[in-house]
Design goal:
Layout: H1 6-10, E1 19-20, H2 21-28, H3 32-41, E2 48-50, E3 53-56, H4 58-72
């Protein structure tokens, strides 16, 4: 039998506080396809992958949001 996820192989369930791709995209104000591209490019790492679906740690998504905000509006030197 082919198991596609660590949760199925180990019998453990993913954390309940994880975000879906759509939820992560809403927080980051990007399209869900952008999240998938970032995962494939190694720019963001999902906590769990279940049969093609990504799940993300909220802390990782929040850190990415802050990084994107810093790039979008850099501090002005006084």
């Amino acid at each position: 039998m082919l198991f596609r996820s660590r949760a199925l192989r180990t019998g453990t369930m993913p954390r309940m506080d994880l975000l879906t791709t759509r939820q992560a995209a809403e927080i980051l104000d990007v399209h869900p396809a952008t999240i998938s591209r970032w995962v494939k490019a190694g720019l963001i790492t999902p906590e769990h992958t279940l049969i093609g679906a990504f799940f993300f740690d909220p802390a990782v998504i929040e850190a990415r949001r802050k990084a994107l905000a810093a790039v979008a509006s850099p501090a002005v030197a006084s």
